[in-house]
């Protein structure tokens, strides 16, 4: 097997960045969610190549930026697009939709569920071949170049010591400040990849680039397996770090040396739009020994074609003829250019905010969103529309066209998710293409809640239950219980005591999954106790504990406080561990 490796991590502590979003280009900042590391792969089995798109989040001094990526061979380097991640994420993220059906005659007294959301919250959840030896002995420079704001160099190393020496002084001249600033404890991790035959791409920002110029990168190299080098990522990993890999191919992608989990949908908080989905996946992966992925989506790319690019999306020729920066910026807005960090920094570069405007106390939002309001300052700007269009073409348009090719080249896309802490990142997860697993995995999950008021019953006290698509019934406490306990629909007592993984399985490049553990009995036992407790609230039975969210232990726990069925799952995991080690 050809082993292709990508490290989707910057080798230094990254502070959160921010995105600006509103009707213009420069507005109040909205924090980017950095709880997930998103990586997009395209696996071309016929050509024997893997392309990978990686977003880079960094906040700090531009001279301190360094990104070191282990790869197979000598990759091609190009820019990618943030919009690829945004649009693909939107179209594949899991949605949990709950419809309601009322039975009987209800008397309403205010509050409660009326077919909508109750309380606050979101309703949804160019490189060549060989080169000359580098400055450090044992390090060979295989290729180098500049792409967008990045200067990059591809190197091979005989061992980690010489690689670290080269990173500390690439040109062999101690008088120049050209070091790649990386964590001091990264040596052993680098050694793991060197012994495995990996090369490295080292990125820095060009001398005239700023942090705002940072854009996603696309690397293309030889291989047939998509891999995330978590051993390297573990150096700066946060606890339960989210991982969200996407794999474009012509069949489904599955984890090869990690396990696969199918989540227990009764554990999902349907009343709150499934906002606990990530937590359920985390728990399910932990039940599988900490190294497992769930599949969020698998299906056709047919409805995603032209998602990023279509003929006539932008009219660069018209923009080139505009000498007035005010008219130029208005036309950009009308044409719908992405209003992300890359676009905003292009604007800063070519329509710089004059010093007099800064001295007058103007902020970027006020200035750039109403250039026509400040003609006295705009007149000071030397504007070159051709240079700005060239930048827009290189850094926005061409990456969009290139990224859109994914939807034309590949017929299927798989999205998976997991979370891992540093101690669980002991092996790099590898994803392979399985042509035998053909069933699509929808990201749209639906259920129905029945509200039975009987003959003139009070709505807030009505009996209610949720019917899942597989026929499972989950009772829901009446609204009066939520009010009496001072909790909202973000509380989901039904999940207490249930395994998060409905099943755990081993997948590979062919055939159907091999079962490792099935937690159906444990789920049904815990759910049965919970449903009986809710029946008690509704006056239909003795009931269970006074409050399942407040008692010690959990509904459906065994005598040791564990969840029924999980011990059996561990036995299954141990039985298959040897085969997984051989697959790595």
Account of the 3D structure:
By secondary structure, the chain is an alpha+beta fold. Helix content is 26%, strand content 26%. It is built from 15 helices and 23 strands. The strands form 5 sheets. The chain has a 10-stranded mixed β-sheet. A 4-stranded antiparallel β-sheet has the order 5-10-9-8.
Could you give a short description of this structure?
With 584 residues, the protein is an alpha+beta fold.
Largest sheet: 10 strands, mixed
**Share of residues in helices:** 25-40%
**What is the overall number of helices?**
15
Spatially, the strands of the biggest sheet line up as 6-11-4-3-13-17-16-15-22-23
End-to-end separation in angstroms reads: 10 Å
Q: Give the overall shape.
A: globular
| Class from helix and strand fractions | alpha+beta
How many domains, as an integer? 3
Low-confidence sequence ranges: 1-23, 27-35, 111-136, 542-579
List the helices and strands and how they pair.
Layout: E1 18-20, E2 29-31, E3 36-44, E4 49-54, E5 67-71, E6 76-79, H1 82-92, E7 95-107, E8 139-147, E9 150-157, H2 160-168, H3 187-195, E10 199-205, E11 217-222, E12 226-227, H4 230-233, E13 241-249, E14 252-255, E15 259-263, H5 277-287, E16 292-300, H6 316-320, H7 325-335, H8 341-350, H9 355-359, H10 364-368, H11 375-378, H12 385-409, E17 412-420, E18 430-434, E19 444-458, E20 463-468, E21 473-476, H13 479-484, E22 501-506, E23 514-518, H14 520-537, H15 566-583
Parallel strand pairs: 3-13, 7-19, 15-16
Antiparallel strand pairs: 1-2, 3-4, 4-11, 5-10, 6-11, 8-9, 9-10, 12-18, 13-17, 14-18, 15-22, 16-17, 19-20, 20-21, 22-23
